[in-house]
Amino acid sequence: KQRPANDPTRLPYHAELTIGAGRFALDVNSIEIAEKGQIGFVVEWRDVTELRMNRALMQAMGDTQLILETTPDGTLCKANENLVRALGFNESQLIGRKLVDIVSGTGEQQGYWDRLKRFEAVSGTFRLAGHGRTVIAEGSITAVPDQKNELMRIVMIANDVTVAEMALSAERERSERLAKDQDMVVDALRIGLTALSTGDLTVQIREAFPAQYEQLRADFNGAVGTLASAMQVVIDNAAAIDNEAREINSAAQDLSARTEKQAATLEETAAALDQLTVSVSSASNGVMDANRVVKL
């Protein structure tokens, strides 16, 4: 290619060259004097590798993150498209507003403005007031000093975590609700089992459980009902056995009384027979005595 110094119409000349992993900027300018015209050239080489990397990084951040800048007094002077779209404003509605009117800190980030004035970077979760909406952002707000160490800019770079935070909040609420339901179920079962342990077979859990635990309540009530029925059968059988035992005992007592009565009758009969035997014996003796008298 033709060298730029050989073609004054191409000056000033700028080009960027790639050498290995580095990027270098080349600037060529002519030096002219009114009376003599062009007397020479100024050639400047600059290593712009880091500059290009920083620009690429900022571009990537600008494509995915929420970025805003303010003046030293906290007045918004710049907002990227992601932030404008997330808040539901247009850029003209944001520019000129105060940072503290839009961004509020949560937890330790509350009162962040005083920390920024001390050049402390503030990182964490922030709430951004949008047009009829609230955006939850996670990132940092940084105070940028100038060469005199005076506040030059305030820059906020953050990720929009609104959807993730809403999902996390919903999951937290679901977990709390589940824990509350479980506490209710455990307490009801504890009361029911305590009553059952004291012999109360009429206990039932009346209050409905949450849907996912309703079968457990039905099983408990059914088990207690089955146990009560089985115990009632045992009680009924025991009562029947007791009645039969009472009847057998009564019959035995009747039999014993009849036996005793028959024994007394036999004793009386035996006594009468003894008396009869004595009488017969006495009569026989009398007859024998009479016979002897007759014979004499």
Q: Quick one: biggest sheet?
A: 6 strands, antiparallel
Oligomer: single chain
Q: What's the count of strands?
A: 9
Helix content: 40-55%
Instruction: Specify the overall morphology.
Output: rod-shaped
Put simply, the count of helices is 7
The H/E string reads: EEEHEEHHHEHEEEHH
C-alpha Rg, in Å? 58 Å
Report the average pLDDT across residues.
Answer: 84
Outline of the structure:
With 296 residues, the chain is α+β, with helices and mostly antiparallel strands. Helix content is 52%, strand content 24%.
Would you mind describing this structure in some detail?
This protein is an alpha+beta fold and 296 residues long. 52% of the residues lie in helices and 24% in strands. It contains 7 helices and 9 strands, in the order E-E-E-H-E-E-H-H-H-E-H-E-E-E-H-H. It has helices at residues 49-64, 81-87, 91-94, 99-102, 112-117, 162-197, 214-295, and strands at residues 13-19, 22-33, 37-47, 66-70, 76-79, 103-105, 122-129, 134-145, 151-160. The strands form 2 sheets. It has a 6-stranded antiparallel β-sheet. A 3-stranded antiparallel β-sheet has the order 1-2-3, covered by helices on one side. Strand 4 and strand 5 (76-79) form a beta hairpin. The relative contact order is 0.05. The mean pLDDT is 84.
List descriptors.
three-stranded antiparallel β-sheet, 7 helices, 9 strands, alpha+beta, six-stranded antiparallel β-sheet, rod-shaped
List strands and helices in order, with pairings.
Layout: E1 13-19, E2 22-33, E3 37-47, H1 49-64, E4 66-70, E5 76-79, H2 81-87, H3 91-94, H4 99-102, E6 103-105, H5 112-117, E7 122-129, E8 134-145, E9 151-160, H6 162-197, H7 214-295
Antiparallel strand pairs: 1-2, 2-3, 4-5, 4-9, 6-7, 7-8, 8-9
